[in-house]
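Dear U.,

Please find below the material for section 3 of the report. The protein was modelled together with pyridoxal-5'-phosphate; I have listed the sequence and SMILES used, followed by the predicted complex structure.
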Amino acid sequence: MQEELARALRDAAERFGTPLYVYDVDRMTHDAQALRDAFGPPWIVLYSLKANAVRPLVCRLPALGYGANAVSLGELIAAREAGFEPSLTALEGIGKTERELREVIRRLQVGTPPLWVSLESSDEAAALAALAGNGPGGRGRIDVLLRVNPEVSPETHAGLAVGARGSKFGMLEREIDDVVQAGGGIDGPLRWRGVHVHTGSQLRSVTAWRSALASALRIRARLARRLPDMDTVDAGSGFPVLDEPGVPTPGDFAAVAAAELQRAEPPARLAVEPGRAVVARSGWLVGRVLHVRARDPRQVVLDAGMTELIRPALYGARHPMAALTSRGVGCTDSAGEEMTDADVHGPVCESTDYLGTHRLPALVRGDLVAIGQVGAYGASMASTYNARPLPRAVLWQDGDLHLADE
Ligand SMILES: Cc1ncc(COP(=O)(O)O)c(C=O)c1O
């Protein structure tokens, strides 16, 4: 870790307390731009707000050409507050409530409909069509995508493999005709615009993603023969942030997409919806050591754990960790301290509140530790279990630290 960053994290902990999320704004902007460069026009790039909706951080994305992908009414509101164009904000998600579908209709009525609604099932199509009325009417129609389960074998943790056959994510190809009929058919209130797939997160290879895209392209071309507005394929995301050799870059995914598009009838509109690759590396969770036990390996308990960062407990995710102080004195990885293994735990009353084994210097109560790559699915998945308060968030930019909610 760079000394300047380590100093900022120490300062932030002293000023705002721990556990604390700190976001490196320049890092986020850099990673967001790199992804945008890999998927340049004509790709539509929708940021997945579920990864992180901290407004003063993600409000920088619309200026980089990003739209948003929201999966709840709360995220639709967060998208608007962060400055994403309503016409570039899609409503997706695994199950949409009546209230969420009504909000789509309300937005249509006031002339700011979402980019599209990605439908999961016949029930959802019928519910949206019923709210919209029986035909196009004067308000226009609602653009919808069909979220199809690509039935692939994603190269990732089972808990992240949403594109696997049998998962709850999306309809099967053979269910599509029923969904279109339930949604009012070709001339009903829904305008069938395209096919949406999402392979899974943290993909270690491009292979399953490529197959999912190929299926989406094939299905779209087939449906376009009878649904004339079918002009869109949304390839989802899955671009990984992993410290492992051989992990594919966004450019690798873009290259296989280009190859698949050569082999297919290309649709007029193409989209991806990254979350993790945009924000993960910008986030740090700073915790303080509460106690150390002389075991083999030693046991270190922090004031940060699964309530602030559930990914290790939920899917065994491994996050890098570095000490910011050792025996009360500032340090960095490169400072030459003797490093030994430590089993690092959080303070929550669950044995799965475990952050992994890490090489760390000597630690005593009060020392500071930083957990890396937590900008995605960190704070957005935080809970108040054990009646713990949600962690505060601080933004770091141009040498300045300020609270995200001020
Ligand atoms: C449909 C859909 N799109 C996009 C994403 C974002 O994925 P990632 O954070 O891997 O980029 C997810 C994540 O769960 C998703 O379910």
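For the text of the report, you could mention the following: The two ends are 28 Å apart (CA to CA).

Regards,
Y.
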